[in-house]
């Protein structure tokens, strides 16, 4: 008679399994029952994950050309610098200096580290600043996966800096008084705050922080001895012609005559969003802090980008004529997709925050929740319940504000208007409103 023997995992592994966030549980469900027109027509329609399919035709054609003109070499089969080969980091530095940072100075490739995704860069950067129990300040609403990136493996603390919603201007405001109050409150509670994480252009708001806001944050963090991480993964996706993106690097280089080293300022970029290369898994860190770069290099063997991927992307990033044309076309297609989805929202009388950049739209479903729940005033619990019902019954995935730490304004949700064609966005909202009208 055989005996079933349990071979237990570590406490850490058990914790990873049991402590899934609401977002992680939801996306697991979506992936297991994803809509497909032929294979799974009754599956979950996903308009919530941040991907840009708009430029896939252009990018795949460019990749084919690179493959044809630059076939794989023998050395591409071997090891290289795990933090990024010198050829790749040089191409990264030149591209980012010209297009993202927009500075005249020649950037030092040794100030860059490349890992397998921006999430990895964020997680590893934070753990270099924070010991377990130390905290990161992040404006909220915030990117929903920051909770996973910051807390899950290294036990750091995430503290939202709640941005009030100004209905007259239709924006969420980054108020430095609230930033300071949040920092002081954390310190009075005995929490050691080590860094501030800013996302610009914003995920989920699609907003762009001004040069003045970024300068104020840089100065504030210097005064309070905090590291500032500037997450700029949507820097080349500005579709509002009246808007200007300012990288933290522009401020760092502009003030060079003041003899400031800005070793507390660190910039994160990725090829996932602007270049439609989510699946390539390439995240980039720029910092002039030698100790941070050294520490990141020391752990780079655990999360490096494959050498073949580096070789391929070195050719891509070195073609500045292509990139200039690509960015221009991407901005044009983003503007068209944004207009198409806002036309859909307007037809259903759904309010939203006017986006200026990126691939995301912050929409207000509070009125729909009130009707569905038959309530005059709704709570955060009502919002989460509505999300679960929409996922289970309408079979549409639109992540709710609770996932983004937007607890003071129930009813907000985030959609990605570039994850599917506009006809599919119309289909998704038809499903939602058919469900809303049913009993």
TrEMBL record:
Q: Does the keyword Secreted apply?
A: no
Q: What InterPro entries does its record include?
A: Aminotransferase_I/II_large, Ethylene_sulfur-biosynth, NHTrfase_class1_PyrdxlP-BS, PyrdxlP-dep_Trfase, PyrdxlP-dep_Trfase_major, PyrdxlP-dep_Trfase_small
GO biological process terms, alphabetically, are:
amino acid metabolic process
Write the record's keywords in alphabetical order, separated by commas: Pyridoxal phosphate
Record-linked SUPFAM superfamilies: PLP-dependent transferases (SSF53383)
Q: Which residue intervals define the domain Aminotransferase class I/classII large in the entry?
A: 56-421
Give the Gene Ontology MF terms in alphabetical order.
pyridoxal phosphate binding; transaminase activity
User: PROSITE patterns attached here?
Assistant: AA_TRANSFER_CLASS_1
The reply on keyword GTP-binding is: no
One Pfam short name:
Aminotran_1_2
In the record, the note on similarity to other proteins reads: Belongs to the class-I pyridoxal-phosphate-dependent aminotransferase family.
In Swiss-Prot or TrEMBL terms, this protein is called 1-aminocyclopropane-1-carboxylate synthase
Species in which this protein is naturally found: Acrasis kona
